[in-house]
Every structure is written in C-alpha cells, then in structure tokens.
Specification:
The complex is a heterodimer of chains A (325) and B (436). Chain A contains 12 helices and 9 strands. Chain A is α/β, with parallel strands linked by helices and 325 residues long. Classes of the chains: A alpha/beta (325), B alpha/beta (436).
C-alpha cells in the first residue's frame, strides 16, 4: 500500500478553497479560513512524523524564499515545507544596504517575476513590504514577516501548537509579554487569537507598548505578575539587543528583573500554564533557561515542529488555488 | 517672466468677481493695461469698449486674484528629475497659481545671496509665473550658524526658513529671530520636536500601531511650537508657523494670537483634506511631512481656518518621482505635489463644508500677499493683473498621470472634485488656457 499517495489524496481532497491569492496578514482572515488552515496543518503533522515525508502536491511548482532579513529558522521551515510537498525551492538573500534597500525590493521583484515563480515567500524589514511586492508580481506572495506589521504564519503555528496542547484556543487566557511595540509576531497573534476566541493580554513596560493598543480589545498590564496571573499561556517576545541598554529599557538586568520570565513570576499563572517563544531566545534576558527548556510547560519545540506543518498547509492551499485559477 | 512688451489692453467681462480685499463677491468686469489692473467694474459689461481692446467673455465664471502659494518645492537646483522651476511654473499656471515661494532646501542650499539671485534669474528666464525664493535661516540648514539673512533679504528672499527642519538649538533660533527682525525679515519655522519625531513616518496612535509604521506623537508639534512662540514673544519677531497640523498646536497658537504676537500660521491643503486613515494599506502618496493626523485634528484645522487662527493655506508642493514613492512605507519619500490641485481641493471646503468662498480665497491670495508685502492678491486698480478664471462648479476627476508636474505623487489621484481652471493670467498675459 502506498501510504504517501494515500495521504496525498486525503490532503488534496481536504484543501479548502482559500479565497485569497496571497497571505499577507491575519487581518483579512475569517474564522473558517483560519480553522481550515489549522485543520489541514494538523494533518501534515502526522505526515512529518513518518519516515516517508514527501508528497507531490507542489510538483512542478517553483517556490522562492526571498529573505531581505536573515532568519535561519523561518527560512528553513519554509524550505522544508516546500520540499516536502515536492516544490522546487530556491533561497535568495539579497544583500541590503541602507542606501539601496528600497530599490532592491522592487528591482528584485521585477526580476523574480520574469523567472515565473509560483510561490514567493518574503521577509523584509519594512512594514507593508509584502503587500507592495504582491502588487508587483504575478505569483502568490506569503508574508514571512514585514517590519513591525505582521507575521501571519507565526501566529498560525502558535495557534496550532495551542490547539494541540489545550484542545481548543477559544476561552484561553493568553498573555503576550515583552517588546510588543516592535513585534510583528504580537500583532498577528493578537488578531488570530482573538479571531479564535482567546482572551489576550499584553504585558510590558509602557515604552514597549504601541500607542492605541488599548483599543485592540486586549487588556494591558505593565506589572508582569498581574499580567500573567491566571494565564493559560505565556507567550514571550524577543527583545532586540539594541533596544536594551537605555533606549527603551534601562538595562538588561532591570528588564529581566521586571519582565523576564522566571519560575517565581510563572507561579502566578494557571497551574496548567504553557510557555511559548517565537525564537530565537535571549536566555536570561526575557526568559530563564529552566523555564524555556522544561518539557512540562514549554511549547517552544512544538512551535518549531508546527511551523513546518502550518507552512505546508499555506503552500498547499495557495498552490491549489493556482491550479483552480 | 520675460520683459517683452505688453499686449494690447484687455477686458475680462461678464465675470463673477471675488475680491478678498474689498470683500466683493458679485458680477463685474476687469480692465487690464500694461500688465496691471486698470479698472474694476461692478457691471458685467463695458459701456463703450474701445476698438483696440481684446475682450474675453468670462460667461459668469469666477474671476479671482491668482493664487499665491508660499510653500513650494521644486528640484532645482540639484534634483531636476523631480521638478524644475520651469515645470513647476507650468504646473502652477495650470492650477491658477500665479506666485510661488520656493523653499531653500535645494542642493546647493539657498543660504547666500548668490543663490537667491540664481533662483530669481532662473525663474525670470524659464518661468511662467512669479517665483520668489525663501532663504535658509542657518548655513546649510544645519541649525548651527546663521545664514546671511540680511543679504538674502536684500537680494529678494521673501522669508527666512530652514524648510522641513526644526532648529533644535533655542539659542540659534532666538538669534535668527532677533537678527531677522532688524531687517524686517520674516522667519518661518516648522514646529516639530526632532527627537520625538525621529524616524517617524506616521502619527503615533491606533492606526500606526496596528500597521506597524514607525511613528511620532502629535504632541511633538505643540512642544516645539510653544517654544517658538515664546521666542517670538521674547524677540518681537514676525513668525510664520509652518504648517499647523494638530489641535493641540492650534490651542497654543490661539493663546499667542490673543497676546498680540506677530504670528501667522499656515496649513497645507493636504492636512485640510485628508486624515491618517487615508494611508490605508500603506499608500505612500499619503506619506507627508508632517504626517497626516486624526480626523479630529483635521476638523480642528477647518475650524481654525474659520476662526482666523490659520491665516494662509499652502499646497506644500513636494514632488517625488515614482521610484522614491514605490517603496515600503517607512523608506518612501514624504510629500505630495499640489500646485494643480490646490484650487479644486480648496473649493471642496466651500462646496462640501460651506466655508465662504471669499474667506478661502483670502487664505491663498490677500493674506500671503499682505504678509510678504506683494502687490498681487487683490482685484484693485494698480495691482498686477495676476488673475485666475475658474468654473467652480465643473466636476473634475483628478488623474495624477495627466498632471503637468514632472512628478505625479498626488494624494488627490482619483478624487472627484469640483473646480476647473479655465484661464490663468500673469501680468495680463495668458499663461494657461484650458482646452475647451
């Protein structure tokens, strides 16, 4: 019996007719969109745990990973996802300098477009860059992080991790902690978690909280102990090194003292609390190693695993749409 | 402007005159001779026109003083691909703007009398409309040492400004104001705390937060403005507040005006027409400097115009070619072209908001003329015959691609407005006539 072909048929039949050409942001998704993507991704998790992981859903299609910002983890996750589905995957990391950043984006887009890729995964330091690119190319664009705007696949993989850990996302209290201001992960997660029915709290010093976040339908806390009190999930965000040391917070040690996740603060959360981090972690800055590595509470490894499955689901869904077009 | 002899006398008859100086808004005719307004008649036709008179029948269209736009950027010298004095002049003529004051932040900077003279000569040789430069307040716009304010003023700089840059060092601005006052020169200053607005591409708030656009707080304007007003009080200088955009700043301005300070405020037509939500999905044509604000701020600006807190409306014409705009939002160049859309956008405030036409016109004619000591800006005997003839009811759909300006970065692209410029005259010569 050919297990691969069997799964392929099942998956193929399951693919929901996704109404969009691109995946730029969570903002445009509806609840059924999100649920179906997560269902599909869930199916891929099983596949990824088998010895034979390769499918032919994307056979003949070209996927380009265009990363203007370096990211080993996200890029390899997309690369594995594409390869497991049978796509030809090309990684591109255009060198950027502050002088030519913008030119590179449009010029690269036009050049790439001429090579007729089918799926374009893009990461860029400018908010809105993925949307801009989608206007310039004929293929499907997947936003792998645009500036401080959104990182939709990260939110989806977080949601899948939570769904598998808790059964459902609806009703969970999720505390997103740290540098919310600069975080695209936080923005996408707030939108998706709310879409799925979770209660979202934002925790961090006022200097790292976006203006107007009080109108996002979230609760805002500046005292971390209060912020994670009774929380089912504590989602830590990465704090960029250059933003410590006086710019947004006075020092690393002061930050860790008030906003770093340690056992003592975590004791305030729900007894069944799970901890998440989009990675890479600054151990001892925003999270204590003991917490991050505790398999009883940490979902960090699950997040990485779900990342590949979620990206496979996105790629398969958008590719299916290409066939229908 | 060429020194060619003036054409034969001209009569513009059967017009609706609107003159902010006399306040007259009604039927009338204008006689033009030797580039000047020879007579203003409150009758639609002439009793006994002489034979050599050229007669233009205005068919009831609005005949008003040509617009005076005191904040225009071209790319000349230094960035001629964006806009030249010539192309800006053609755009101005097409928009009914007959006088423009160009900003000193060119390359090289207009910070010495030879540069002032260069602009005046270039404009005379190539331009269709009157062009005056503003001179830099500090050398190289660096905000450190005073530029040659006296010599530039003498050479014809209409006011002194560091354009988009706020002078951070209060001591420097104080000296600029004191020194300028000694020559009767006017200082214009952009109020924006440069630290609070560093790297900002939008106004801090829910919108910018959601879209992850680097932003600065609106209060940065009031903070700097309060200091500027205090320095104007200290020095007794005449100050133009360059583009008020926030409600908070208007409150500060109101207090200064009550005190009787010599303070005049401008507002850009963009900030009177749009708010930050127009940026929508990162539309960089709405990326301006200062950035668009909230709808509350826009409402306050319109109110400020009615209250007389805002004296002058500017186009803030800032050409940027497509390659500078088609970029991720935070990397895109700020600014919008505006010379050709100023009048119809202004008329929208009349048609849609019911602001009196004569008051709106005053803000782009008489008010800047009086402030900068220009004879234009009014329909009066002896004034230069700088005129605009406009069908204020005609519907227009703005199409950026058809703009005369070299750069097409118009936030009004696709907007439906009313008001079509039929003819523009500078010193009695037709410099623009709409295709019929």
């Amino acid at each position: 019996m050919d297990l691969g072909a069997d799964i392929e048929r099942t998956i193929s039949a399951h693919v929901y007719p996704f109404p969009y050409k691109h995946l730029i942001s969570v903002a445009g998704l509806t609840r059924p969109d999100a649920d179906d993507l997560l269902d599909l991704a869930d199916g891929f998790v099983g596949l990824n745990r088998q010895k034979e992981k390769k499918l032919g859903l994307l056979r003949g299609l070209t996927q380009v990973n265009l990363f203007f910002e370096a990211s080993t983890r996200t890029q390899s996750s997309f690369e594995l996802a594409g390869k497991r589905l049978g796509a030809d995957v090309v990684n591109m990391s255009p060198r950027t300098s502050s002088m030519t950043k913008g030119e590179t984006l449009i010029d690269t887009a036009v050049t790439l477009n001429a090579m007729k890729p089918d799926l374009l995964v893009v990461r860029h330091s400018g908010s809105g860059a993925a949307a801009l690119l989608s206007q310039k190319v004929g293929c499907s664009v997947i936003n792998a992080g645009d500036g401080q705007h959104e990182h939709p696949t990260q939110a989806l993989l977080d949601a899948l991790s939570l769904r598998r850990a808790f059964g459902e996302v609806s009703g969970l209290i999720v505390a997103i902690c740290g540098d919310v201001l600069h975080s695209r992960v936080a923005r996408s997660n707030v939108l998706l978690l709310q879409l799925l029915g979770a209660h979202v709290r934002l925790v961090g010093p006022p200097t790292l909280m976006p203006a107007g976040a009080d109108r996002w339908g979230v609760e805002i806390f500046h005292d971390m102990r209060k912020g994670i009190e009774g929380a089912d999930v504590v989602m830590m965000l990465r704090l960029q090194l250059e933003r410590m040391q006086g710019a947004f917070v006075p020092s690393v040690r002061e930050y860790f003292r008030f906003y770093g996740l340690d056992r003592e603060k975590l004791a305030k959360a729900s007894p069944k609390v799970r901890v998440m981090h989009p990675g890479p972690m600054n151990r001892g800055v925003e999270i204590e190693s003991g917490v991050a590595d505790d398999p009883e509470i940490s979902l960090v490894q699950d997040q990485v695993e779900m990342g590949v499955a979620v990206r496979m689901a996105i790629l398969a869904t958008l590719a299916r749409r290409l066939e229908n077009a | 402007m060429t020194g060619a002899p003036h054409p034969r006398p001209l009569a513009l008859v059967n017009a609706r005159l609107a003159d902010p100086e006399s306040g007259y808004d009604g039927p009338g005719s204008i006689l033009v001779q030797d580039g000047l307004i020879a007579d203003v008649l409150r009758t639609p036709s002439l009793e006994s026109p002489s034979h050599d008179l050229e007669i233009i029948d205005c068919r009831g269209a609005l005949l008003a003083p040509g617009l005076i736009d005191i904040r225009v950027k071209t790319g000349e010298p230094g960035a001629e691909t964006k806009e030249t004095l010539k192309s800006a002049g053609r755009a101005a003529a097409a928009g009914g703007v007959t006088t423009m004051v160009v900003q000193p932040d060119t390359d090289p900077v207009i910070d010495e009398p030879a540069m002032v003279d260069f602009i005046l000569r270039r404009a005379r040789d190539t331009g269709l409309v009157h062009v005056y430069p503003a001179g830099a307040a500090t050398k190289g716009l660096r905000g450190e040492e005073m530029a040659e304010i006296g010599l530039m003023h003498e050479a014809g700089a209409r006011y002194i400004t560091d354009a988009d840059r706020s002078i951070l060092d209060s001591r420097v601005l104080r000296r600029v104001m004191s020194y300028a006052k000694g020559f009767g020169a006017i200082v214009s200053h952009r109020p924006a705390d440069p630290f609070l607005t560093k790297g900002a591409a939008a106004t801090e708030g829910e919108f910018a937060g959601r879209y992850g656009i680097p932003s600065g707080p609106a209060i940065a304007e009031r903070i700097m403005l309060e200091r500027d007003l205090a320095l104007a009080e200290l020095t007794g200088a005449c100050l133009i507040v360059d583009q008020v955009t926030t409600k908070d700043a208007l409150d500060a301005l109101s207090r200064a005006k009550l005190k009787g300070l010599k303070v005049f405020a401008t507002a850009s037509i963009n900030h009177l027409s749009f708010n930050e939500l127009d940026i929508g999905d990162y539309r960089t044509f709405y990326k301006l400097n200062p950035p668009l604000r909230t709808e509350d701020d826009r409402e306050a600006l319109i109110e400020g115009l009615t209250d007389g807190l805002i004296d002058i409306i500017v186009s803030a014409h800032a050409p940027a070619p497509a390659e500078d705009k088609r970029l991720p939002y935070d990397e895109a160049a700020p600014g919008a072209v505006g010379l050709e859309t100023l009048l119809p956008a202004l008329l929208a405030l009349h048609h849609e908001r019911g602001l009196p036409l004569i008051d709106l016109l005053r803000a782009v004619t008489l008010a800047p003329a009086n402030l900068l000591n220009l004879k234009a800006g009014r329909l009066a005997q002896g004034a230069p015959a700088d005129l605009v003839l406009c069908d204020i009811a005609a519907p227009v759909v703005i199409d950026a691609d058809t703009l005369v300006s070299k750069s097409k970065n118009s936030p009004f692209d696709g907007r439906k407005l009313q008001g079509r410029v039929l003819r523009t005259l500078v010193e009695g010569r037709t410099v623009f006539e709409a295709a019929s």
